UniProtKB/TrEMBL annotation:
Residues 29-68 form the F-box domain. This is F-box domain-containing protein. Gene3D superfamilies: Ribonuclease Inhibitor. InterPro entries: F-box-like_dom_sf, F-box_dom, FBL15-like, LRR_dom_sf. The lineage of its organism: Eukaryota, Viridiplantae, Streptophyta, Embryophyta, Tracheophyta. It comes from Paspalum notatum var. saurae. Pfam families: F-box (PF00646).
Length: 500
């Protein structure tokens, strides 16, 4: 007998047909040890295909029940999942379920069976929607308390989620909740805090509704990711072991949000919100290594300008700071709003994504550099212009973006700057002017890596290589690249240092 696997299907072939009067050869495959048979079934990566192997022989009928992983693909009826899990005889390390807008009651029953049985690893529960973007309606899926599971990942679409009011997630280390609507009055903060989730290390909540108050008190949490949690008004995090916090609030419509963060071991903070700046005890930020902020509008006043400026005031020192500088097309306002940033933390690396909108950016970058005298590395990424910006790419005469114009003549020293990386350079005059000034300010610069935008010609890029190399010191190594497509991996070396 031969067993072949193809596209999740199982085929059985006899080496000799029985009609020729000869005895069929012995079934060597079914005589294999269970662990080898289980290896075959795991390769199918689908519970339905694994279950169909029961037609091969009586021995195969029990083998699939020993699988450590059960995976149910799209449009699986939760009742079938419940039956399969109930009949299972082995510890489950992975239960992966994808279903389509099933009734909350049947999905709740399915989860209860999984929690009561042998799920000791990861649960992936994904409800696919027939119509995207539906609001939560109908009943709620009641999440049981998984006392043995180590990882839970739920994506519920238009269904509500009701959290257990009691019980301990004793072994849970990772919890992902995506596209969920919380069913009041259950509190997520209570479920994920140390008293009920003593081992939780990573929590991710994104595209969520109905979570008005989130208060987390956790001794074990190391990573917290919150994105588009609509309606959130109060965020409290007390996590002495937290290393990474990412908060992306755009589109959340939470103008009244108040955020209090106590995380003395925090190393990475990514905060993007247009209405709220977190309350960060200054003395607790000593371990911060990387800070990423929301975008800052150079030529138009916006609410997030205040948020970014206030956030930077709270941080005394950080190794890496990453920001986005946006220039709106057209004149904009008559003020140079980058001056709202009155202080930058002590840092060694500054990363700037620049959306020029047809404007010059030398003055705004110069303003920030003057506050970074100890800077060792500068990373600039000039973002591609939008199609409608190309039409008005010429900066209007007298535009505020070039003020104060003394950046073109003022002398100052960046005597710690060793490395510069510039990506997306288009080769326009104001870019060349800025780079010539930068090479003059940096007295000990060791390397410059410059990547030209893929839309300029290679002949023009090579001409710029000679021009820019002539501005640099002899001890500075300059490397020039051209983009072939999107991403660093698509670039190729155009030329090393060129001296004309």
């Amino acid at each position: 007998m031969e067993l072949s696997l193809s596209g999740g299907e199982v085929a059985v072939k006899s080496k000799r047909s029985s009609y020729d009067g000869e005895k069929e050869e012995e079934d060597h495959i079914s005589a294999l040890p269970d662990d080898i048979l289980l290896h075959f079934l795991l390769r199918l990566e689908d519970d339905a295909a694994a279950g169909r192997t029961s037609v091969l022989s009586k021995r195969w009928r029990r083998v699939w029940k020993l699988l450590p992983e059960l995976r149910f693909r799209s449009n699986t009826d939760p009742r079938r999942v419940r039956a399969a899990v109930s009949a299972h005889d082995a510890d489950l390390h992975i239960l992966d379920v994808k279903t389509l807008d099933a009734a909350p009651e049947s999905m709740t029953a399915c989860l209860r069976v999984a929690a009561a049985r042998r799920l000791s690893g990861a649960l992936f529960f994904d409800v696919e929607e027939q119509e995207q973007g539906q609001q939560a309606s109908g009943g709620a899926i009641e999440l049981p308390c998984f006392d043995r599971a180590t990882s839970l990942s739920l994506r519920l679409g238009s269904l509500y989620l009701a959290l257990p009011a009691a019980g301990v997630f004793a072994r849970l280390t990772t919890l992902f909740l995506h596209h969920v609507s919380f069913h009041s009055p259950c509190e997520l903060g209570d479920a994920v805090s140390s008293a009920r989730s003593p081992r939780l290390e990573q929590l991710s909540v994104s595209d969520a509704r109905g979570l008005l108050n989130l208060a987390i008190h956790s001794e074990s949490l190391t990573i917290l990711f919150l994105a588009t949690v609509r309606g959130l008004r109060q965020l409290t995090v007390v996590a002495p072991g937290l290393r990474k916090l990412m908060f992306c609030g755009f589109g959340s419509a939470h103008r009244e949000l108040v955020a209090n963060i106590s995380a003395p071991q925090l190393e990475r903070l990514h905060w993007e919100d247009e209405h709220c700046v977190p309350d960060l005890p200054v003395g607790e930020m000593a371990q911060l290594q990387k800070l990423t902020t929301a975008f800052f509008c150079v030529n138009t006043q916006t609410q997030q300008n205040y948020i970014v400026a206030r956030l930077l005031k709270q941080i005394r020192s950080v190794a890496e700071l990453y920001m986005v500088l946006v220039h709106y097309p057209g004149f904009g306002d008559s003020q140079f709003f980058i001056k709202n940033i009155v202080v930058l933390p002590r840092l060694s690396t500054l990363g700037l994504d620049i959306s020029s909108g047809g404007h010059t950016f030398g003055a705004s970058v110069f303003y920030l550099l003057k506050m970074c005298v100890g800077l060792k590395q500068l990373e600039l990424r000039v973002l591609p212009d939008m199609e409608d910006e190309e039409i008005q790419s010429a900066c209007p005469s007298g535009c505020i973006c070039d003020e104060p114009s003394n950046w073109k003549t003022e002398e100052f020293t960046l005597n710690c700057l060793q490395k510069v990386e510039i990506d997306g350079m288009k080769g326009v005059d104001h870019e060349v002017m800025f780079l010539s000034r930068l090479l003059n300010w940096a007295t000990i610069l060791e390397t410059v890596s410059l990547t030209f935008d893929r839309f300029i010609s290679e002949d023009k890029a090579k001409e710029l290589c000679h021009t820019l190399s002539s501005f640099s010191r002899a001890e500075t190594r300059m490397e020039f690249y051209m983009k072939r497509g999107v991403g660093i991996a698509s670039r190729h070396l155009l030329a090393p240092r060129l001296r004309g």
